[in-house]
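Mods, move this if it's the wrong board.
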Amino acid sequence: MYAYLKGTVEEVTEDNLILEVNQIGYNIKISARTMNAINGIGSFVKIYTYTLVREDAFQLYGFISKDDLEIFRKLITVNGIGPKGGLAILSVMSADELRFAVLSGDAKAIAKAPGVGAKTAERVILDLKDKVSIEEALSPKENILLSSLADDDMGNKKNEATEALIALGYSASDALRAVKQVMVSEETNVEDILKASLKYLL
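Not the wrong board. Structure tokens:
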């Protein structure tokens, strides 16, 4: 129903935000990470929203970035992970950290979320492993650039560098995090990415 809301923060807690928009106060459920990203009462913010409509409820869930909203939408498709569970997971990890955990099978990282046990974390990995990718974990600028450089696929270069780091004994999660931090250009080759990534791992 609402793509996003822009307004003034009237009240903010670890799990709820009251946002005033045109003299109307909206109750919005948020994660602890979203709370920490808000400057405080009186600040003007843009909140991306997900609207849950049921017979007995009409609730808004809010996120500071569109990326968090998109990963939340994927999370709540997992059996056993409702909106509350989705917010719990996004309270302890960012959207990219969740992607890394899913791609590397790191159930322990996901299970750190309150109310999310080991079995549920494994289910998150099983259900989302085909819905997330290394490319999604790249910065938005890099994703835009990748789509316009079909002849020089930077995504493939980063994938190769990630696989090389895993072959060297690093976990998939650590390898993904390191490679993500490397800036690439058309002239950058896989060896360059690998060397730069190792600096973040040593």
